[in-house]
Amino acid sequence: MNSTIPDNNAIALLQQHSLPSLVQKEIEKLILSGELTAGSKLNEVMFAELLGVSRGPVREAFRALEGTGLVRQEKNQGVFVRQISIEEADEIYEVRGALDELVGRKLAEIITDEQIVELRDLLSSMDMQVEEKNVDGYHALNLEFHDRLVRMTGNRKLLDTYRRLVNELNLYRRTALAQKGTLPVSTREHHEIVDMIASRDINAAGEIMRAHVIESRHRMHRAQASTTPD
């Protein structure tokens, strides 16, 4: 695993914050980037050595990651990066569609001009990743784009629920984006979302957010079909 881990001095500087939280964030980055793949076993001792911490914070980080849906703990077996079935993914997309519709409707009511500029700046960065055909870079910005939309609603419970759902979908989302021709379509949909939210049309903003989730679900199935042996 060629991971980019902060040096021990960086860890020491941040020890005034929650050390388990810091460890959690570092492991989370490796999972969301795809460096730690679904089904991978997480070694407590290895992460303690890599991060220059004791095993206690790593153990706590594992428990927190289980709470976010990114890992699973099996008795007498260890901790593994969680893999969900395609059936579970379908159920999650169904729930996510309803949540995203709520987000779109809410933002059409409350979004500020400054926040619209912020979103368009983020879209410009995403467009650059599309031009460079950088799937990993686009995937990271895609996660940030959707997370930022939910954060802008100001609803903490909605954000917590949303994050757990999308964490579980991470593997499928990245695989879908890697399909040929997907990035330009995805970024066009994102521009349409921001345009509709900026129009302050509550119904249309909600509908386009739900439609984007439906299309994402279709992309997931196409990606799965292309990678499944006959």
UniProtKB/TrEMBL annotation:
PROSITE patterns: HTH_GNTR (PS50949)
CDD domains registered for this protein in UniProt: WHTH_GntR (cd07377)
Lineage: superkingdom: Bacteria
UniProt entry keywords in alphabetical sequence: DNA-binding, Transcription, Transcription regulation
Cross-referenced InterPro entries: GntR_C (IPR011711), TF_FadR/GntR_C (IPR008920), Tscrpt_reg_AEP_util-assoc (IPR017723), Tscrpt_reg_HTH_GntR (IPR000524), WH-like_DNA-bd_sf (IPR036388), WH_DNA-bd_sf (IPR036390)
GO MF annotation terms: DNA binding; DNA-binding transcription factor activity
Domain HTH gntR-type span(s) in chain numbering: 17-84
Entry-linked SUPFAM superfamilies: GntR ligand-binding domain-like, Winged helix' DNA-binding domain
Keyword Lyase tagged: no
Transcription keyword on record: yes
Name by which UniProt lists this protein: Phosphonate utilization associated transcriptional regulator
Organism of provenance: Noviherbaspirillum saxi
